[in-house]
Amino acid sequence: MNSTVIFIERSAPATITDFYDVLANDLISVKEKWSFEFKTFRFTVKNLPPDSPRLMHSITFSHHGNKTVTIKNKSAVVTSTNPGDIPTSLILNGCSSRSSEPFDHLLTSKLSNLWTQRQSIKGDFGSTYQTAELIIRATNVFSYGGFKGLLIELECEENVQDTDFEQRVAKIRNYLKEMGIEDYKICGDSIDPLMKNYACNLAFQYVKVLEF
């Protein structure tokens, strides 16, 4: 699968309705609601080398089994709160008690002397649109300070060539241009081009467009 994430900071809460209107002729169906939560943590230990990265991000996706991807620099870890995702071997050898805890909760509860939460951004009750070429997810994004912008996630379930997917993304970008929107962040990069992991790549794209 391929994915690209677009974030339009200079938008209004009603922009998501305008976006739906321009997609209307292409829609096959409107699918399930979805949400995400994006958190940024800062490493508080001092006396690190000046070029050492201090930020770590976690992104939880409701539409991917509520999995959480934690990214620091270009390393990623995928965790889940679903007990069914715990390998049986870890339970049998005593490494797991069958209970699971979100990784970001561990940071704030048991590692709070090392990591402090810097920001939290959420997209709730997002819409999912199915076209012949893409699954398009759109949601208004909010932080503690209020409305932040419109986020659009583009997904292609087919095994298409990168150039074909880029053409499909270009079509969405043309729709945005028709709406008068040309100032936005966009990312379709992979966290590691040599290792294809959809959840990690998607989370990396979220980091790139939502970092402030």
UniProtKB/TrEMBL annotation:
Q: What is its main location?
A: nucleus
The record's subcellular locations are:
Nucleus
Write down the InterPro entries for this protein, in alphabetical order: Mediator_Med20 (IPR013921)
> Which Gene3D superfamilies does the UniProt entry name for this protein?
3.30.310.180
CC per GO annotation = core mediator complex; mediator complex
- What is an example of a Pfam family matching this protein? Med20
Which GO-annotated molecular functions does the record name? protein domain specific binding; TFIID-class transcription factor complex binding; transcription coactivator activity
BP GO annotations: cellular response to nutrient levels; negative regulation of ribosomal protein gene transcription by RNA polymerase II; positive regulation of transcription elongation by RNA polymerase II; positive regulation of transcription initiation by RNA polymerase II; RNA polymerase II preinitiation complex assembly
| Alphabetical keyword list | Activator, Nucleus, Transcription, Transcription regulation
Quaternary structure note: Component of the Mediator complex.
Give the protein family: Belongs to the Mediator complex subunit 20 family.
What is this protein's function?
A: Component of the Mediator complex, a coactivator involved in the regulated transcription of nearly all RNA polymerase II-dependent genes. Mediator functions as a bridge to convey information from gene-specific regulatory proteins to the basal RNA polymerase II transcription machinery. Mediator is recruited to promoters by direct interactions with regulatory proteins and serves as a scaffold for the assembly of a functional preinitiation complex with RNA polymerase II and the general transcription factors.
Name this protein carries in UniProt? Mediator of RNA polymerase II transcription subunit 20
Gene symbol here is: MED20
